[in-house]
Specification:
CATH architecture of chain A: Alpha-Beta Barrel
Number of helices of chain A: 15
Structural class of chain A: alpha/beta
Radius of gyration of chain A: 19 Å
Shape of chain A: globular
Largest interface: A-B, 34 and 34 residues
Oligomer: homodimer
Strand order of the largest sheet of chain A: 1-4-5-6-7-8-9
Helix content of chain A: 40-55%
Distance between the termini of chain A: 36 Å
Order of helices and strands of chain A: HHHHEHEEHHEHHHEHEHEHEHEH
CATH class of chain A: Alpha Beta
Chain lengths: ~350, ~350
């Protein structure tokens, strides 16, 4: 593919446990609605058109890189491209978020999902990655990502936002075997999807199990952790088989405070944690051979600059410079002031 | 008041660390929409009319007691009676839940809250408690409850459901002093409100800090825990001063997995925990001189009876019979089958 050599290797180095000159930092959902330039482009195009048009996805991915001293770009896309590829209709409805007009109502609906060739059906993501990697000219690494099986299942069954996820969770209690069938089906796609992203040029991958927080430990073990492990192992196996070099993998299981140790032993180089876990606690219970990523409360960016600087400094000094990637504990909110993002990034870098 | 003597003392005994013949059990939101008899009454009256009419609140409180072998009744009311008493308008909107048409938009709005005499303004709750306590004829104890300051503040600032609580949380970051002023104001009312409930006949009190889960440990310490401690100490002081006997106090800070030890040392006899904390972990880190309450995943009630029985038995056997009150890890959902509630209660009692 003839990509230009990487100039800023901080995030990759931190992920692999190497020394870094400065703590690397990126922000979940950094290419998003809090940026006026994003909102302007978004006013012209539908959300999924932006995801599905490599030129637009590339343009959006680069927006925060042009504005801030970030140490990584992350491809503009959405975790719901997988259910969409499986034939599910998805609409972004103002005030209601992503809505599936026909969610999976019972296990029989699993059979309505269209079998897919990931390579073809999600080619637009791979093309966007290759184009963006070229456009970055090696300035910073390009991250790819995917939703994890339980999180995708949750959206597919709930159909729209829910404060309890009780529909999706009821499947786990009522239809354990059928739930596993769906999670297996999703895992197989996710594995191919991640490998495809790496093949296309992604230099690090984050797996988002955003809805882990709704489960207890025993349910998480069965319905999340086993798939998280399997995806990691299978991706590496498939890369080897196809002669594609491995890249660092990040797991973010939001709210899985009960499985920090297990996550740190699940084969991922990096474990991303949310803000409800203190850096001290995370360092104490987790495998010291993984890199931690996180975990500023996204709302801390509402604080006055001086106060934001203080909480950021406290966070980075507690995590320390070794095996650490600074980030928020979840995606940035749409009403955030970009100036405060700069304060956050500077506070990390000047540590 | 000449209340009849209490026949079933299991919950009070468990709260105080005494031996019990059977593990006591009650269910958060046990007098609620999952009961057809509740839905029938609700079809005739507005939600707050039901709360504000002692005869109706009493009728609803007794519904689950007539149907199930529960070890406690909990007065039918809502945590939002306090913001309502402060002059805030609240509407229950179908599909949107509780909505405040005029939430607190900035700290200046704190001054629009009407100063109140709790004894007068919330007299309907006290009357409902006295009436229900008489109607129970000592069958089981009657619990009272209140929302905790941060949880109430969150509703008052957000105005309606929010997946991030970012408006209310932004106050903590942007206006720390004004937030404390509001939390202090609410604490003073909560203290009087709890004392009033005990004076009216409540035999145990639960304080709900339901929205603790949105905070990190350092914010929780400042904006929740200090008020939780203060409320407990002040209630006991005021009871003493007025010559009213103390009752056991329960704290439920949902999602506060990072503060289990601190909560168990905050002066409450009982700490209620959500389902994301395993019984083993809770027993390990918490003060052994408090009673634990909880913590079945509410969704476990969707399971088939045999499977529900198994998870319940596993939970109670891990908590053990000593210093334990069985409950769900949060309120029961409106679509739950009452038959499964019976399976749960029986599984606890037959342990």
């Amino acid at each position: 593919m003839n990509f230009e050599p990487l100039q800023n290797t901080r995030i990759i180095d931190a992920a692999l446990g190497k020394e870094v000159d400065k703590i690397p930092v990126w922000i979940m959902r950094q290419a998003g609605r809090y940026l006026p330039e994003f909102r302007e482009l978004r006013s012209k195009y539908d959300f999924f058109t932006m995801c599905q048009t490599p030129k637009l996805a590339c343009e959006v991915t680069l927006m925060p890189i042009k504005r801030f001293e970030l140490d990584a770009a992350i491809i503009f896309s959405d975790i719901l491209v997988i259910p969409k590829a499986l034939g599910m209709q998805i609409e972004l409805v103002s005030g209601r978020g992503m809505v599936f007009p026909s969610p999976l109502k019972s296990p029989a609906d699993i059979d309505t999902l269209q079998p897919i060739n990931v390579k073809e059906k999600l080619s637009y993501v791979f093309e966007a990655i290759t184009l963006t990697r070229h456009s970055l000219k090696g300035k910073v690494p390009l991250l790819g990502f995917s939703g994890a099986p339980w999180t995708l299942m949750c959206f597919m069954v709930e159909g729209e936002s829910s404060s309890t996820k009780s529909k999706a969770k009821s499947w786990l209690y009522k239809y354990p075997e059928e739930s596993k069938r769906l999670l297996d089906l999703l895992s197989d796609i996710i594995i191919e999807y991640i490998v495809g992203q790496i093949e296309a040029g992604a230099q690090m991958i984050q797996l988002f199990e955003t809805l882990a927080e709704y489960l207890n430990k025993s349910m998480f073990d069965v319905y999340c952790l086993s798939y998280i492990r399997k995806i990691n192992a299978s991706v590496r196996e498939l890369l080897k088989k196809r002669g594609i070099p491995e890249v660092p993998m990040v797991i973010f299981a939001k709210g899985a405070h009960f499985a920090l140790k297990e996550l740190s032993e699940s084969g991922y180089e990096v474990v991303s944690i949310d803000w409800t876990v203190s850096p001290e606690e995370a360092r104490k219970v987790m495998n010291p051979n993984v890199t931690l990523q996180g975990n500023l409360d996204p709302c801390a960016l509402y604080a006055a600059p001086e106060s934001l600087k203080q909480v950021t400094e406290k966070m980075v000094s507690t995590f320390g410079k070794k095996r650490y990637i600074a980030n928020l504990g979840h995606g940035i909110y749409p009403d955030m002031d970009p100036d405060n993002v700069e304060v956050f990034i500077d506070a990390v870098h000047s540590f």
